[in-house]
DNA sequence: TCCAGTTTTCTAGCACCGCTAGGATTGCTA
DNA sequence: TAGCAATCCTAGCGGTGCTAGAAAACTGGA
């Protein structure tokens, strides 16, 4: 029965190759360039094979990539936890900066990922927890959940507007410092 | 020569109808539903007519719609100027709430619109000016430009994350109030 | 009024997209 | 080795943005 095991392993490996190919292609040429035909060519199989792995089609592949992103973001934030609000904020921005297409898949596209619900995947809650962890100590009398949401929104807004060249490139560092100053200080 | 004038007027009117049809369709069914074929059917002309008005194709039509949006946003912010930071913040969110597709065209899609550059259209600078106007008085020693950019980013982040159901619906008002509290108060 | 000439508009088509039905091929089992 | 089951691919559907070239409409002069 080891042959069966090998076949199962091959299948999961191929599924992983699909997601990896999608991520690389998206990072190199944007998600518009990630077509099922090009993905099929990259993994050297025909198009329908993609649908045997991801019945949801392209959206499901993007969602799978996004899930990987949440896991990576969660560990990046956890590693920066000692740095407090400033450290986590920097880690968050650096993540979005290093993997812009992945960040888009996680937060801008792929709107069918269940956020803030019962069936929200653990890695997503974990990533969000990385923000809560550093905000909670400085929340004071304020609701930590609301404060975290706003802190997160500020970071997300900075990233998305900056990417679209909506903000002056010269003030990048200043902006981040300002967000940290307004949210990292203990409120009265 | 009045005939020539009439023809010019008809042409501009038809161009306006294209943008209006695109906006209505986008607001009703999303920008994905705005196809050149459906637009052509709505204005009761054939597809290539669209390209005689907007050589850039669909992107140019979206950009034209976005420009209208900036004009409307600018006047909405100007009208709320007396309300200070809180009033302008509320007006901004209400605008994004009332015309979500238009807001997307302005800030999420249509990335070829020239932001923060020399050839930035006046209406875009005007809309941004509506934010600066209320932030400047409370900037204190802080750089008003940077503070405005961060204030704007926070609002934008709130809106986009909220739209994707990334934030808990119950705390909408609280979040906005918190942004205003952190950015509307005069800094030391 | 009729006829060039110009402008405007439409028909038809290209290459591509996501996705899928049904047949061919492969590998496993007995 | 024969039959079965799982796997995979070919071919195609309806749709997309966009465009070349034919057709139609409008123009101004005889």
Textual characterization of the structure:
The structure is a homodimer of 188-residue chains. Chain A has 188 residues and is mostly helical. The first copy, chain A, has nine helices and no strands. In chain A, helix 1 packs across helix 2 (36-43), helix 5 (84-98) crosses helix 6 (100-107) and helix 5 runs antiparallel to helix 9 (172-184). The first copy, chain A, is 72% helix and 0% strand. At the A-B interface, helix 8 and helix 9 of A face helix 8 and helix 9 of B.
- Overall shape of chain A: elongated
Number of helical segments with 4 or more residues of chain A = 9
The largest interface is: A-B, 33 and 33 residues
Oligomer: homodimer
Biggest sheet statistics of chain A: none
Q: Quick one: how many beta strands of chain A?
A: 0
Distance between the termini of chain A: 65 Å
What share of residues are in beta strands of chain A?
under 5%
Helix content of chain A: over 70%
User: Uncertain segments of chain A of ≥5 residues (pLDDT<50)?
Assistant: none
Mean pLDDT of chain A: 92
- The radius of gyration over CA of chain A amounts to 19 Å
- Structural class of chain A comes to mainly alpha
Q: What is the H-and-E element order of chain A?
A: HHHHHHHHH
């Amino acid at each position: 029965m080891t042959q069966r095991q090998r076949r199962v392993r091959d299948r999961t490996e191929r599924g992983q190759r699909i997601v990896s190919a999608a991520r690389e292609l998206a990072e190199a040429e944007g998600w518009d360039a990630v077509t099922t035909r090009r993905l099929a060519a990259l993994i050297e199989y025909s198009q329908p094979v993609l649908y045997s792995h991801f019945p949801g089609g392209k959206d499901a592949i993007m969602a799978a990539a996004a899930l990987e992103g949440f896991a990576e973001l969660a560990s990046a934030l956890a590693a920066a936890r000692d740095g407090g609000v400033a450290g986590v904020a920097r880690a968050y921005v650096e993540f979005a900066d290093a993997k812009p297409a992945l960040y888009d898949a996680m937060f801008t596209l792929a709107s069918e990922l269940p956020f803030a619900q019962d069936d929200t995947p653990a890695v997503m809650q974990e990533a969000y927890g990385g923000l809560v962890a550093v905000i909670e100590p400085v929340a004071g009398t304020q609701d930590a959940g609301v404060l975290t949401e706003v802190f997160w929104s500020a970071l997300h807004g900075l990233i998305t507007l900056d990417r679209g060249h909506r903000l002056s490139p010269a003030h990048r560092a200043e902006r981040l410092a300002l967000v940290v100053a307004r949210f990292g200080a203990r409120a009265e």
